[in-house]
Amino acid sequence: MASTLFKGIIAYPVTPFSERDGALDIPALEQGIERLIKDGVHAVAPLGSTGESAYLSDAEWDAVADSSLRAVNKRVPVVVGISDLTTANAVRRARFAERAGADAVMVLPISYWKLNEQEIFDHYAAIAGAISLPIMVYNNPATSGIDLTPQIIMRLVREIDNVTMVKESTGDIQRMHALYRASNGELPFYNGSNPLALEALCAGASGWCTAAPNLIPQLTLDLFSAITKGALDEARKVFYKQLPVLEFILKGGLPTTIKAGLRIQGFEAGIPRAPLKALSEAETQRLAALLRDIG
Amino acid sequence: MASTLFKGIIAYPVTPFSERDGALDIPALEQGIERLIKDGVHAVAPLGSTGESAYLSDAEWDAVADSSLRAVNKRVPVVVGISDLTTANAVRRARFAERAGADAVMVLPISYWKLNEQEIFDHYAAIAGAISLPIMVYNNPATSGIDLTPQIIMRLVREIDNVTMVKESTGDIQRMHALYRASNGELPFYNGSNPLALEALCAGASGWCTAAPNLIPQLTLDLFSAITKGALDEARKVFYKQLPVLEFILKGGLPTTIKAGLRIQGFEAGIPRAPLKALSEAETQRLAALLRDIG
Amino acid sequence: MASTLFKGIIAYPVTPFSERDGALDIPALEQGIERLIKDGVHAVAPLGSTGESAYLSDAEWDAVADSSLRAVNKRVPVVVGISDLTTANAVRRARFAERAGADAVMVLPISYWKLNEQEIFDHYAAIAGAISLPIMVYNNPATSGIDLTPQIIMRLVREIDNVTMVKESTGDIQRMHALYRASNGELPFYNGSNPLALEALCAGASGWCTAAPNLIPQLTLDLFSAITKGALDEARKVFYKQLPVLEFILKGGLPTTIKAGLRIQGFEAGIPRAPLKALSEAETQRLAALLRDIG
Amino acid sequence: MASTLFKGIIAYPVTPFSERDGALDIPALEQGIERLIKDGVHAVAPLGSTGESAYLSDAEWDAVADSSLRAVNKRVPVVVGISDLTTANAVRRARFAERAGADAVMVLPISYWKLNEQEIFDHYAAIAGAISLPIMVYNNPATSGIDLTPQIIMRLVREIDNVTMVKESTGDIQRMHALYRASNGELPFYNGSNPLALEALCAGASGWCTAAPNLIPQLTLDLFSAITKGALDEARKVFYKQLPVLEFILKGGLPTTIKAGLRIQGFEAGIPRAPLKALSEAETQRLAALLRDIG
């Protein structure tokens, strides 16, 4: 299980909407991705939580997948987020992503009714059987309503061939310990909780899936690089420096805060889709101050 | 606020799918509704959680709304469930329900990203402004991921004219106490947590929104009637009699357990849509035994 | 299991301390109990949570047990609260209570380290084996740190002869449902959560263990009597009338709020023992207003 | 605030009881401490959670404090645990510890009734005012029932002169981040959650308060030393090696598991005091296997 394409800073682009009519703004999407790649991120993950995947129609989703992959153009690996309430549409999207050239898919089993273990397993098995790409299991109960315990994750990894990576976003470091122990350190796991970045990397995470590079790319790269060279004091310093921004963007909801931050930095990606709203003026001032303090 | 069309047992129909191809089975939908009305329920609530509304395409949703209203044909009041991740589509569905003849809509603000109070308010305001039907606020954080506190609910009721009813499904009786106190007992509230039915009615709930009438209609009606006439001992007796079934259907997920129960009773409504699965054989035997014990 | 000495309103006296030196004020203790009995409560429960049992030395505890029993003087049944971190001292206190003339003991297995099921069982078995009084199992995880599930409680009831009653203070009505179902309605259970009083009695509770009679005895008695005669509308009315006081005294901590309320009513029982503090002036004004509104 | 006597591995001794009559076994207590010091721990913390402080009479507590300090005999710093339900007795114990020669006290505000912020503050202020030793604030809501938020802790640190250190045992690394940020990295904080040891030290903890050195002293020292020299890979390796033992001793309750482990290693410290029980035979076999795997 050990080797992996994905290592380091895996960045989430936002999905820009036009302020005029709320439609997808594909040129801004492409520019946003270009910005991330120019800034040096190690991989790109479109259509994740930050990408407002849950709020897109099928046609929009397909357009974003397609445009994102063309914009990256194989310069870095791409993992496309797949989460849909029905298995049928999750399968459809995974197939679409594969045809469009994704290197992997990241699957979050979103729910209305809670799923039992077998329902979760069959959902993954159906998607895995429909594509030949590697699959990153994504656990984020706070948004998805389903908690994939380390036991369930290990079952998926052991019983489904192309399930080969895990992204853990609970923010509970013990989950990572459990995955490490259960796989003898061989299962690549990724941190999806921004304020846990330092500790997750110390505990052996292969990478950090994050929207932060949209606003503070160098600090995220510096943290990963300090850990890689074993410079713990430097890692701690660079982590505490960026922590106020990491906490802010998480607390306010990533699409909301990242789009506000991009606007502060002069990049126009619009605002999130309703019922999500733009960040309030007061909060935008706070974010601007945090970004200024760091810069 | 006090008077209301909706009182008593408000029944959720299931949304049947064909086992052959998973398509909507409209004739079975109509028969299921007919069954509920024949059994004497006081109102019908299509496209709720039990109706797998979350798993339907827009075209399917529209078809179910239309067929359900035609099947009821004004014999009892109908409240149509509206829950969509985007405000735009929630508005579209509410308008559709109004045109199709609904008496009210029940709005659940489902989330991927958590909504703050203003986002929740604006979501309700947008829907309320688009229709002239009364709106039942629906709180069910376990499925929707959003908790509408009594404070938020009272703000909606006070500031939006056609928000006039509340359905509480947290199972926490203190929420009902808070609504009662904040409105001097004038805001009609409904219980959506099956195992709380006795206490909610004792505490003043106007009705009980439930899928149980699909399987045990008379017991649900008997409970409401015992409470209405102040026969507390009888109410307690009939409640404890049906409690094992109420707990079972809640624990296993309503679409899953109700469809299994309907099949046990000889009514074919298929199985839920994947990733949801049919109830296991062992659990189906348990449900059959529970229904037999009661009968 | 069904018949029981204890039925109706079981009142907790406070344990008064002198403001001068913090010592026990036995005359005030006796007067407080006299007040409760004059007001008509059905039973008295000294040395409970309200009685600050946890903050007393052994000598003080013994003095309160003794004085309370003498003050009641067999006019109503008395259940003495037993909760001590060590089994040895819990046994000692239970024996003391028996010798002093208690009718029953109420045992709360308080913890520093969490107890497993066998440790809980052996704690109860040791106490039960040392006395011949009936034992009321008391579940209150919010103060004790140990949650006695219905399964554990039923094991205690089935395997230990003199464990014959349960007081449930979680505030979760489903716990009472579980006890009712598991014992076919034969195990007497009591409500220890003030804001659940209406629903617990509707669900079949034999009584209500409460500190509220110190301040509003008639309303608590009226609720019990309305339920007993099946007057549900009246019960609901009298419950909502007293609910603001019930919520207030629970939220502020019972020794703190009850002692403040007694002072408002002209009965001097001092303030709680440090680290507990007297109710703040602002909160005392609120309590006074709530009591005035009701009176 | 930055400099501190306490750094590195701060070990909790157990409090041995004779199996014959349950009395304190002072010679075994002294030998246990001697063992820890010989093994190289950096400091000793008697009368903590592991030391069953909560289950001792006052006379026993005093004897353990006295004997522990004499056994250490100034070879390493000693921080004595203070936690008592009443402020008066907590003050008495703190004074006793100072007179007996402690270098600091660690104060856990244990509760029956929840304490509000002012009650917590006054409890600390009373103890701090009675002694001139430095005080380590100890947060462990799982055992104490009181959660000291970073906000409350920072208030204690800022407003009470001799409150100068914090021990955090919630296991939530974000609490440490908050303390670090609020004090610009100047407040010494210690980790009290065994399975968080790696990450807490990476995040800047000054030390690790732990019972693990009773069983695996070298591994705990190796982890601290690897972190100190910035050898992250080595730290991770030695942490994952000991993690199964750390998880086991936490899960089973420290007095129970540590006393069982000591017996496995041939050191007789008896069993915990009832209601706590000896570790079961099956669990003891598991612990023996874990210790063998590591050795």
What are the key terms here?
12 helices, homotetramer, alpha/beta, TIM Barrel, 295 residues, 8 strands
- Rg of chain A, alpha carbons: 18 Å
Q: What is the overall pLDDT average of chain A?
A: 96
State which percent range the strand residues of chain A make up: 5-15%
What is the number of E strands of chain A? 8
What is the CA–CA distance across the termini of chain A?
Answer: 39 Å
What order do the strands of the largest sheet of chain A run in, or round the barrel if closed? 2-1-8-7-6-5-4-3
Query: What are the secondary-structure elements of chain A, in order, as H or E?
Result: EHEHEHEHEHHEHEHEHHHH
CATH homologous superfamily caption of chain A: Aldolase class I
Give the largest chain-chain interface (CB within 8 Å). A-B, 35 and 35 residues
Short description:
Chain A is built from twelve helices and eight strands.
